[in-house]
Amino acid sequence: MKTLTLSAFKNSLVSITENGRNKTYLLAVSGGADSMVLLHLMKELEYDFHAAHVNYKLRGEDSDLDQKIAEDFCKKYSVPFHLYTVSDAETKPSGSVQLWARALRYDFFRKIMNDNQLDFLMTAHHLNDQLETFIINLSRGSGIRGLSGIPQSDNGILRPLLQFPKEEIYRFAKEKQVPYREDLSNQKNDYLRNEIRNQIVPLLIGTNPNFLENFQTSLSLLSDSRQLMENKLEEIADEMTTFSDENILLNKSLFHEHPLFVQSEILRKYGFLCSDEIQKIMKAENGKIFFSNKYRLLVDHDTLVITEKKSMEKKESILDIAFFHAGNISENEIFTFQNDDFQLKMQLTDRPTSLRDKNEWLFDFENLNFPLKIRKANERDLIFPIGMIGKKKLSKFFRDEKIPILAREKIWLLCNGNDEVLGVIPFRQDRRYAADSATNAFLKISIQIKNEF
pTM of the full predicted structure? Predict the structure, then answer.
């Protein structure tokens, strides 16, 4: 069993921060033995740190006394202390109080860190917490990722006490006369973690005097195995992954060659966690779309196209751009509009002109409703393609022209002031406002594509 000393703690902290002396910290302090020992250790090392406490007002006077013991310690040693007190007006959840409390305190911690430009959040998790989490994850079938334990360093959160058992923390608190309070609610078995802590963990530790030490060794081996697995998964993912603009493209055939476990792990980082959903993705027809919290997955023939929602929202903000008014047109003057995908050159003339290819369109200027604009397509759009009879939904037009689904997202429409389609850039002009033998004023539009579809 690893002994908790000031030197052992310092070594633990340095090992997860490289140069811990030059960093700033926010300590999450509850008033319990673990967090108060953490305060004491950081004070003895004279590191630059703040402390934060949340009073949830769930245990009456006991909640206030927890706050007081943490606050008094910080006042005594001039440690900046940040307090969040849950008011009576705040709505407490009818469901999981633990999840609500966790979300509340981490939001509070992040705000303090941002406001004070602190480097790391530090919590007082210890080896017994590791064992409790392992058992919870084991019961949930979480796999090697869950069984590898709580990391000592993760997303800016440090847990330097993680290798020390609870018994050592209490021994250290008694030896150094560190004040703390017991949370009596932890003795109740009304939560799964409390039940495991109070009933299962004591039985396991009682089976072998070296149980916690052996458990820590097993965790280390599991963590190494997980790292090996993730390195191999990254190699496999690299073989089937390419990138296009803001899209991640997975080769569906190569993806399909691997077992469900590998498929699940590759898609997990994009938020697709359910094996049933992954099987649906593999069986989905062309054009089917799936969503996770942060990503969209589109099945496009032999490709799985993954796009971050943020980048899609950014594109959505520039869809509708009014750019061409009748009042700013002079005869024979060339007006140019461009974006990242294409360039339009427009010229008003009273003389008809021959068109060289599909990238040149000719309109009857007097029949156009201004302002002209460009935007992306929606499912309600119709086109009356020049050179064809009748009308088509754009979705059918795209299929008939054999335009890949991914390419369709890059396509822009030229529209009039009534939002009617004048043309699909760069594929086809709409015939409704095209110039004809009766036209007196011609608007010629030449299209130059910058990024191939």
Answer: 0.68
